[in-house]
Design goal:
It is a single chain. It contains four helices and no strands. It is mainly alpha-helical and 85 residues long. The protein has one domain. α2 runs parallel beside α4 (73-84). The radius of gyration is 15 Å and the shape is elongated.
């Protein structure tokens, strides 16, 4: 359940990033697009790590890579736990 809540919060974050970009918010909220870009870069690195190290643990690596790009570590955590077990 904790992972589901984190994924929901991540969806809200991405929606806020898009809204800030489209509506041109000012002040602290105006920084959301830059923060979103930084998070996207980190998620690309996470997808690369998944693709190079963990994709053999996935039944559908393309769908999992897409979810890792959106949700980051919250989706990749199960593959890391399988690796450690």
């Amino acid at each position: 359940m904790f992972i589901a809540l984190n994924k929901a919060a991540t969806v809200v974050f991405w929606l806020l990033v898009v809204m800030a970009q489209v509506q041109g918010w000012q002040g602290w909220l105006g920084l959301l697009p830059q923060v979103g870009l930084a998070v996207a870069v980190i998620h690309v690195l996470e997808v690369a790590y998944f693709w190079l190290s963990l994709k053999q643990r996935s039944s559908n690596p393309v769908a999992d890579a897409l979810q890792i790009f959106v949700f980051g570590i919250f989706h990749m955590k199960r593959f890391i736990e399988q690796q450690n077990a």
